[in-house]
Design goal:
76 residues; flat; mainly alpha; 0% strand
Length: 76
């Protein structure tokens, strides 16, 4: 069997180049499609509410040393 390679896809974006392309695509959609603006706004608001709730939960209920098992999962 031959090892898998990325040459099959023909086009690959990794790291910051992929992030830049994603931001540009979102910006184009926000400008071009009014309905997408509402979807994006609602999605960001839901994400911020969930992130804030999780941050508050972990601030009020910190993980204790004895709660973590196994202590050394790789046996190092």
């Amino acid at each position: 069997m031959e090892p898998e390679s990325d040459s099959r896809s023909g086009f690959s974006l990794r790291g910051s180049a992929g992030l830049i392309v994603a931001v540009v695509v979102v910006a184009i959609l926000l400008i071009a499609l009014p309905a997408y603006r509402w979807f994006f706004l609602i999605s960001v608001l839901i994400g911020l509410i969930i992130a804030g709730g999780l941050a508050l939960w972990h601030k009020l209920h910190p993980i204790e040393e004895e709660d973590v098992e196994p202590k050394r999962p790789l046996g190092l």
